[in-house]
Write a structure and sequence with these properties.
This protein has about 500 residues and is an alpha/beta fold. It has 3 domains: about 1-145, Pyruvate-ferredoxin oxidoreductase, PFOR, domain III (Pyruvate-ferredoxin Oxidoreductase, domain 3), CATH 3.40.920; about 160-400, 3-Layer(aba) Sandwich (Rossmann fold), CATH 3.40.50.970; about 405-505, Rossmann fold (3-Layer(aba) Sandwich), CATH 3.40.50. The chain has helices at about 15-30, 75-80, 105-115, 120-130, 135-145, 165-175, 190-195, 215-225, 235-240, 245-250, 280-285, 300-315, 325-330, 375-390, 390-400, 425-430, 450-455, 470-480, 500-505, and strands spanning about 1-10, 30-40, 45-55, 65-70, 85-90, 160-165, 180, 205-210, 230-235, 255-260, 290-295, 320-325, 335, 405-410, 415-420, 435-440, 440-445, 460-465, 490. The longest helix has 18 residues, at about 300-315. The relative contact order is 0.10.
């Protein structure tokens, strides 16, 4: 079974609170959930909505047709009723108009009774969130206002639910992060907020909001030089400003970890929506030539693991590590039942001031092994070769990790290649299709397995959230294999892929 619900209203009317109450109860009941959040760049007003999909089996995307619409305002019904299934239902706020700002609590109660959830469980979650007896009474009023349409049985699954931002934060904390520096920019701010919640606890962590992105990257480098496990976060426009700092890392070889949460550009673009168009800049930003890794998780669970790996590799090889995300991954909520494996221990592989009893130099100039500035040709070549030699070592150690994943029919000759937040929609779309999906987790360096899979396939389909197929271009550069234009499914309307629509696009390209 699978249900797809839309919960909508104006910014400030508590749409997210309805989703939060509903998903917390369902997680306690053992159901898998995917929660997509859609909102314009407004603090109040406009039209916000969440699409909550849930099932007794794993899922990681949403569909374009709805089993139910929960409307805090009439505009929600007007905009989305055309996508309601014939058997679908609508819960509106008309009967709760006297509740003012608490309409959302009543609607949450009504929705949960619609699915046959026990009242005690509903009121317990409302009590934990709002604390007051008045809110509990409003939730009960909403619950009693509806009749049960579906009876959900409680399952034995132990499910975790978190956003991509929460996943990155957990991965960083479990890598003994000491310093997180950022200047707020949607959708990267979520990680800063998650880390800021706990910085005053017993953990040795400082979260610092710099005056701009240039200051942020240089502060992160300074903290790393002094021995902190340091990380800096931004979105595309801020990442542009950090480019000079990335080059400083390349020459100084101070470990630097960057969380890059892409959104639609260029410039301010579509600021509260999603895009995978910043891959090129992640791969190449900064002048000169120097090593880096770029990892691209596809869900919250992978965000935990790849953040840990990125911090580990940055400190082991004194390189730049970039964790690539986007709005869809950062702010959507994903459910999973896997246990988080043991984390890689972060070990410094360089001399640290105040620990090593000697003068330690880090410089932006080409230098000899003592950190002294040089300009002669021989030492300049030696410096370049020494830094770029790290790529060979990185390739070996990264192959020990899971650089790619394969889903679907393993022997199929139809191969889908994609990366990042497209993962969920693809997995749900190909459930009964003759194809396999190769998810690229490490974009730099690339796994050697990719070329072999592409050579063995008769039909290759590329799926990306940008207009030019940036991963496809990289694959052609590294493998010599061109994915035909007609086999590229590219989405660049600043919205994520929808699984049923993507399925139709894939079917048209199957041979």
């Amino acid at each position: 079974m699978k249900y797809n619900l839309l919960i909508g209203g104006q910014a400030g009317q508590g749409v997210n609170s309805i989703s939060e109450i509903f998903t917390k109860v369902l997680i306690n009941y053992g159901y898998y959930i995917f929660n997509y959040k859609d909102y314009p760049s407004l603090i109040r007003g406009g039209h916000n909505f969440n699409i909550v999909s849930f099932s007794d089996k794993p899922l990681a995307s949403f569909e374009s047709k709805f089993d139910g619409i929960i409307a805090v305002d009439n505009l929600t019904i007007k905009l989305h009723e055309k996508n309601l299934k014939k058997t679908g239902f609508i819960l509106n706020s008309e009967k709760f108009q006297d509740l003012g700002k608490d309409i959302n609590i009543a609607l949450a109660g009504a929705l949960l009774n619609t699915f046959g959830i026990d009242k005690k469980n509903v009121l317990k979650v409302i009590k934990n969130k709002f604390k007051t007896k008045e809110c509990i009474n409003i939730g009960e009023k909403g619950f009693d206002s509806e009749v049960t349409k579906y009876n959900l049985n409680k399952l034995n699954n132990k499910i975790s639910l978190m956003s991509g931002s929460e996943g990155v934060a957990i991965g960083a904390l479990n890598s003994d992060l000491n310093l997180y520096v950022a200047y707020p920019m949607t959708p990267a701010t979520g990680v800063m907020n998650e880390l800021a919640k706990i910085q005053n606890t017993k953990r040795d962590l400082l979260v610092f909001q710099a005056e701009n992105e240039i200051a942020a990257v240089n502060a992160s480098l300074g903290g790393s030089f002094a021995g902190a496990n340091s990380m800096v976060g931004t979105s595309g426009g801020g990442f542009d400003l950090m480019s000079e700092g990335l080059s400083l890392q390349g020459m100084s070889e101070i470990p630097l970890v960057v969380y890059l949460a892409s959104r639609a550009g260029p410039a301010t673009g579509v600021p509260t929506y999603t895009s995978q168009a910043d891959l090129n800049v992640a791969l190449r930003a900064g002048h000169g030539e120097f090593p880096r890794i770029v990892v691209a998780p596809g869900d919250a669970y992978e965000s935990i693991l790849l953040t840990n790996q990125a911090i580990y590799l940055s400190n082991k090889y004194n390189i730049l590590s970039i964790i690539f995300s986007d709005k869809h991954l950062a702010e959507s909520q994903f459910s999973f039942s896997e246990n988080i494996p043991k984390f890689l221990k972060i070990v410094k592989n360089r001399k640290i001031p105040f620990i090593n009893k000697e003068v330690i130099k880090a410089t932006s100039y080409e230098h000899d092994k003592f950190g002294n500035t040089i300009e002669d040709p021989k030492t300049t070549i030696e410096g370049h070769d020494r830094r770029l030699k790290k790529y060979a070592e990185l390739q070996k150690v990264c192959e020990e990790f899971e650089m790619v994943k394969i889903y679907g029919k393993k022997n199929s000759k139809n191969l889908i290649i994609a990366w990042g937040s497209t993962k969920g929609a693809i997995i749900d779309a190909i459930e009964d299709l003759d194809c396999k999906f190769l998810q690229v987790l490490y974009i730099k360096p690339l796994s050697k397995k990719i070329k072999k899979e592409m050579q063995n396939a008769k039909n290759i389909i590329l799926v990306e959230g940008n207009s030019t197929g940036q991963l496809g271009r990289l694959l052609r550069e590294k493998t010599g294999i061109l994915i035909p234009k007609e086999n590229r499914i590219l989405k660049y309307d600043a919205r994520p892929f929808v699984c049923n629509e993507l399925k139709e696009e894939i079917q048209r390209r199957l041979k």
